[in-house]
Amino acid sequence: MNIPDELVRQRSYEIWQQAGCPDGFSAQHWFQAKSELEGQYRAERFTAIESVYRQKVSPRPSISYPPRKLISLKLPAIDRSRAA
Fold it and tell me: Exposure winner among 22, 24, 47, 51, fewest CB in 10 A?
C-alpha cells in the first residue's frame, strides 16, 4: 500500500507538535504516522468491501407460514435371519 509522503509528513508533524516538539524523534514520529495512515486505509477499504458485499447478498426472505414437517419414507425392515 502506498501512502503519499505528503500525508505522512503532515501527520508526523502533528504527532511531533502533540509530543511537545522534542528533538531526535523524527523517525519515530514518521513511522507512527505511516502506521496510523495505513491502518485508516485498511479500515476504509474493509468498510468499502463490506458494503459492496452486503449489497450483493440478498437478505433472507421472511417466513410467512410455518415450516412444513417433513415425513421420511419408511423402508421395509431387513430380515437379518435370512442374510446369514
Answer: 24
Percent of the chain with pLDDT over 70: 69
CA angle 5, 42, 60 (to 5 degrees): 155
64-to-21, 59, 60, 72 alpha-carbon distances in Å: 65, 15, 12, 24
**37: Cβ–Cβ under 8 A, 6 or more apart, which residues?**
3, 7, 8, 11
